[in-house]
Amino acid sequence: MRQLRETGFMHNRVRMIAASFLVKDLHLPWQWGAAWFLEQLTDGDMASNQHGWPWCAGCGTDAAPYFRVFNPTTQGEKFDPSGDFIRRRVSELGATTDVHLQTGNRPQGYPLPIVDHSTERAEALRRCRGVS
User: What H or E segment, with its residue span, contains residue 7?
Assistant: First the structure.
């Protein structure tokens, strides 16, 4: 999100991870993310944006399966294994060798997660299935 705010750009993979987190972990309406991203992106395209967000949310035409919930940590490990992107964009993690925070050792002052991904993933799936 810092990259988006600073540069007006975000790689498509990171856009999908952010969209999944906002919609499926934080349970925000996809329209909120779509509006904010379109406002921030220098390469924002109305048609692509308005199609991509429902896709990530698992609704709309040609939607991603509702059960697809990106795990931000495993996505980082898979697509940024050395942590170069993270170090460049998250200054608080610039000096750590554990940018994926696997050991539980956080740099002093680095915030704890705002949600537990596994708990919120389960809740997102429960909501999509319509189970009460």
Answer: helix 2-7
